Amino acid sequence: MNIKNKSILLPLIFSFLIFSMLLNSMGVIILQLSTQISYKGLGFLEFFKDIPMAIVSLFCVNLIRKTGNKNALTFSLIFVLLSCIALPLVDAFWFFKIWLSIVGVSFAVAKISVFSIIRNNFKDGRLSSAILRVDASFMIGIFFVNIGFGTLLTSDFAVYWKFGFWIIALLSLVTLWLLRSVRIDEESHSESKKQSAGWHYFLQPKIIYFFIIVFFIIFVEQSFNSWLPSFYRNNLHLNSYFALQASAFLALFSFFGRVLTSRLILRFHWFRLVLVCLGAVFSILMIGQFMISSMDGDLQFLLVFLIPLVGLFLSPLFPLYSSEILNLVSKDKAHLLVSLVVIFSSLGSSIGSWYMAMVFHKNLSNLYPAFILLPLLFIFGLSFFLNSTTLGHDREQKE
After folding, report:
1. What is the DSSP string of 78-112?
2. Could you tell me if 112 and 72 are in contact, meaning their C-beta atoms sit under 8 angstroms apart?
3. How do the domains of the chain map onto residue ranges?
4. CATH code for the structural domain at 3-388
5. Closest CA to 256 of 139, 125, 128
6. In the chain, where does DSSP find H-type helix?
7. Is the pLDDT assigned to residue 246 strictly greater than 80?
């Protein structure tokens, strides 16, 4: 990877790190508010983030194309910087809903911009590797937010836990400074006008399979990222600090999984890696469910060490599927593709969180791994269809 590409990648990695910490602070928020609000109510809180994200991603494609990816990413970082500064200063539950909406809208713009920048500045195996590296920073962001807030909540300053978001605001400021000096290749004016095949292009079976898989992957990831701390606290009786710390190791293993896969994708076919990852996730969850159902409390504590291993194999799935499809589409379709990915991701996140909220509300958290296995079965089956189906009009390469 040349020096130019490295300089481009750094602010993109920082951007995803920031949004990861914001989006995955839901685990912390659920733990802090669960004594005041029901799990059912907290499950719906996710909708305030994901529905605006889906709506904006549908309509902002042309705006991003006109303003440029770099400018759009800059605006999204400014919005989250200001909202993070405001959050600790407004002591009301309704502001969490507004704050989550701002984060959701900003992430929709940022994700479309970041993936389009990668599509315009990287090719083939390097493109796949770049996506995996940027997505790896998303995992390390989850680790930092759980460790950081977990430490803060057990300190003498626990009552000021919301001021932890000021650190994220500071990181946003640093990222804006890095982004300011980077030169990025944008789409040419003629490319931005092209809409060859339009929406019909995305109605092909291969693309539809991909969108459904994206929905279920985010569905599963959200079941872990937002609800694993609550599972640890309810079923293993860990306090909030240890529940967040233990959950942080899921993110740490996820980071290593994506970094390792960013190298393996240059040597092995993506579908082979997908099958290995899915098989490992199935195995770990089935062992975990067996331990919950058949072992006593002391042995169940081993789940604290077992479940985080899921991250090593679950985390590469989204970038593996995404890079495969993104490599096949032309530059003029990249914005719209990523926009649709954000929509299906948002729906998967909202419905996944609501699904788990109902599991906990009905006191079925002892079947937590089993409920996660169900959507994984859909991913496994659809992966074979995705791999065997061809995509028409593959990359009409006038690049």
Report:
1. HHHHHHHHHGGG---HHHHHHHHHHHHHHHHHHHH
2. yes
3. 3-388
4. 1.20.1250.20
5. 139
6. 3-23, 26-33, 39-45, 47-59, 61-67, 69-86, 93-121, 124-153, 165-180, 189-193, 205-225, 228-235, 240-264, 270-294, 297-300, 303-306, 310-314, 317-326, 331-361, 368-388
7. no
pLDDT confidence band for 188 (50 / 70 / 90): low
Cβ(224)–Cβ(310) under 8 Å? yes
- DSSP letter at 391 equals -
Report the b/e string of 87-112 with b at 16+ CB within 10 A.
beeeeeeeebeebbbbbbbbbbbbbb
Of 320 and 93, which is predicted with more confidence?
320
In the numeric block, which tokens belong to residue 393?
Answer: 């009009």
Q: What tokens appear for 264 in the block?
A: 């393996």
Name the nearest CA neighbour of 204 among 333, 397, 347.
333
Separation CA 332–CA 327 (nearest Å): 13
Radius of gyration of the chain (CA): 20
Residue 159: predicted pLDDT: 80
Which has more pLDDT, 133 or 310? 310
Mean pLDDT within 3-30:
82
Higher model confidence: residue 168 or residue 264?
168
The Cα 100–Cα 53 span in angstroms is: 10
Q: Quick one: pLDDT at residue 4?
A: 56
Mean pLDDT over each residue of the chain, to the nearest integer: 82
pTM of the full predicted structure?
Answer: 0.75
CA 380 to CA 399: how far, in whole Å? 34
Q: Which distant-in-sequence residues (6+ apart) come within 8 Å of 158 by Cβ?
A: 152
